[in-house]
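Exercise 7.
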Amino acid sequence: AKMAAAASDLLTGWFLFGLALLAILIFCWVYVRKYQSRRESEVISTITAIFALAVALITSALLPVDIFLVSYMKNQNGTFKVWANANVSRQIEDTVLYGYYTLYSIILFCVFLWIPFVYFYYEEKEEDDGNTCSEVKTALKYTLGFITICAVLLLIGAFVPLDIPNKKNSTEWEKVKLLFEELGSSHGLTALSFSISSLTVLGMLAAITYTAYGMSALPLNLIKGTTSASYERLENTEDIEEVEQHLLRIKSKCRDGRPLSSRDRRTLQQLEERLRTLRRRERHLESIEKSWWTKFCEAIRPLKIVWGVFFIIVALLFTVSLFLSNLDKTLHSAGFDSSYIILGTNLTNPLNMLLPVLQRVFPLDYILITTIVMYFIFTSMAGIRNMGIWFFWIRLYKIRRGKTRPQALLFLCMILLLIVLHTTYMIYSLAPQYVMYGSQKYLVQVRFIVATYNQLGNIFRSLLLLFPFNLDQCIVTRTYLFLDKFWFFRATYYFGNWAFIAVFLIGLIVSCCKGKKSVIEGEVDDDDSDMSDDDLSVYYH
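Solution. The predicted structure, written as tokens, is:
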């Protein structure tokens, strides 16, 4: 009966996993179709963006699943369940490990091969509408550089030994033999881990830039809301009238046949461009004012405020926990030489305190960890959407509803793939024991030694309790196998966490000082054409 119940639970779990996978694919399709440009849409780039975004979300969802599976194999008293014998537990561990192998390999494939190829192919297609074979060759030529970088990272990870040979007089052949023995024993785990860790550093930079800002901007935007469409339209009408009067004054100067000065011509050109932008804003505001979606958003305004308060609480919980975790490493580790490793927890952070409490009521702890992971991803998407794609101080692309170029969507998905890799380490740095073992409990061997002494009519009893901790009683998550293998990455993540906290605080101050966003924020720019307004009904009606 217990075996049947366990099998039923596993089937239910797989069914829920299938539903979650279907929901992820639907969300990715809706998200990409919402933001991609209708005039520049490309089938290959659309499929690539949907696939990469789905891989990012599925990979982020694997951490809670991994923690749940190692915890589900044990009872609350610390004993293994009847069905969780050595073979079954090993099969579950291998399945999760192969899942990580597959997803991480797909991420490497997307980042170093598929996304660069599609990007360069589309760039060539825009410049030259001629021979398709020539466009493919050119795209492959540029993509070859990314493939070379990936191969170098895999080779470094495969053949750089983590353990130095003890024999000082060992020959070169013995050293080479040791390298291949380590490669064979790890089954390529070290090579893949080094490559993923290298990408995680890039993901750390992306998280500092986009996620830290998104964690502060998204909740406050929900709380403050947007300005009224009717009020903005009234202001826009006044601006149009003012610009038109200014244009009439300048044009009146040439009524008698006199040519305009160069300064007036420049002013006239700027005012005409300004007038075109204001009229586009007028069309957008009119469409939004009549839209049923705007009326629906106004009706659920209290719910948005509640969500905004909830999101800011999660953001503060995450940031305070990250600060205390980093402060603990600063005060109690051996410093840079030990890559800021500490044994145990000296300063308990709120997240590390909350997870053990929630473990008592299933499945509150998994809901919390899943909420944090998903919140990290969606705030990253909000940060990229608000800021656009930047290369240092140069703005490459904007992310706008219905007007995002295919190249920008590819960049967005690549950035999300990198941020997802960094998410796992950030959560591990906050709650290392929970990420390693989940809610597992272990058996405590107790030995009672009772000695009775009769002296002056009094009885004294002594009690001795011994609590040996056996690591073999707990199963470590497969996530941990990809973490903490290289000391220089750990040190880099440590300093990256401080930078993340600083950017979050700066973003929080800036977001608090800014007023309400425009109801058409980012929808109308000076470089838009009048043809870009033809599909307004698709988004607002």
